[in-house]
Amino acid sequence: MSVSEHELREIRGLIEQRSGMLFDQSRERFFSSRVRVHVEAKKLAHGIDLLRLIKNSNVEYDSLLQRLLTQETSFFRYPAIFEVLERRVLPELHMKKFWESPRSLRIWSAGCSTGEEPYSIAMTIGDALEFADAWNIHILATDISRQALDHAEHGIYGAREIEALNLRQREQYFSRTNGHYVVKPRIRNMVTFAPMNLAQVVYMGKFDCIFCMNVLIYFSEELQAQLIQRFYEYLEPGGYLFLGHAESVAKSDVPFETHVYQDSLVYQRPAASRRAAVGVEQEKV
Ligand SMILES: C[S@@+](CC[C@H](N)C(=O)[O-])C[C@H]1O[C@@H](n2cnc3c(N)ncnc32)[C@H](O)[C@@H]1O
């Protein structure tokens, strides 16, 4: 089995072009070793055989992609983010939508991996919004990995995976089966999982909050800036964007307001001011 530098470059180019994932110098060794393992597992003789395979078959492309994805995640990964969601964002949305009937909340977890992030959002809503059952809560959770989504949809986790949850959360939101923890329907029903490649533009409608944590770091600066722009457009005025700790909106020129909360930054699309709103109304007339 042999994979030449040239073949690696071609495979890397194809993956970058289709998924937006960038394998720069810092991730070059990770990339080449995973590709070589894959070529061996597929019992192929050369890198060119793999290239042919992934160009001709989506199943084969997905299978290689799966080997290259990093799906590390956990429940309540950044506690401060979930605290700000509970203490600031949800009460603000509650006030804003108080007179709406029915009251609805749309949240997007973009790059949700195996589901811990959207379920943490759902639990935070379950804890924070009084009478959450009376709201229409839609958490859209998307990822490029069908394998991760499959895991997420089942909502079954081991004891180690739920370590970050306190006893009350475990009892309130999970049932126990054969030593595993299964997300209860009340939480499960808030979340819809769907495959989605963030490198492709899809019409999404508007969201009150977007979580895209620890995903942008894998993309080129250009794609990061495009995504930040798209997230801004997908957010309702006053809506919030949550990124991972190593990510920021700094390299884009989108006018987010930045709030610092403990060790985290939170980005808010400015709410349309009353004067601006009146101006728009007047223009329409
Ligand atoms: C490190 S995980 C982050 C999971 C979660 N957001 C968190 O912070 O715990 C990154 C996720 O991004 C997904 N991903 C990578 N490239 C993607 C793309 N082009 N479109 C959608 N999801 C992608 C991966 O499959 C993976 O599940």
Characteristic terms for this protein:
285 residues, three-stranded antiparallel β-sheet, 11 helices, 10 strands, binds S-adenosylmethionine, single chain, 44% helix, alpha/beta, globular
Distance between termini? 71 Å
Order of helices and strands: HHHHHEHEHEHEEHEEHEEEH
Bound ions, cofactors and other small molecules, one mention each: S-adenosylmethionine
Number of helices: 11
Q: Helical residue percent?
A: 40-55%
Overall pLDDT level: 92
- Classify the secondary structure makeup into a structural class: alpha/beta
Structural features, described:
By secondary structure, this protein is an alpha/beta fold. The chain has helices at 5-19, 28-41, 47-56, 58-68, 79-96, 116-128, 146-154, 167-173, 185-188, 221-234, 274-284; strands at residues 104-110, 136-143, 156-157, 174-177, 180-183, 191-195, 207-212, 235-243, 257-261, 264-268. Strands 6-2-1-7-8-10-9 form a seven-stranded mixed sheet. Strands 3-5-4 form a three-stranded antiparallel sheet. The protein is globular and about 65 Å long. It starts with a helix and ends with a helix. Mean pLDDT is 92; it is low at 277-285. S-adenosylmethionine (SAM) binds at residues 19-21, 69-73, 77, 111-113, 117, 143-145, 148, 196-199, 213-215, 218, 244.
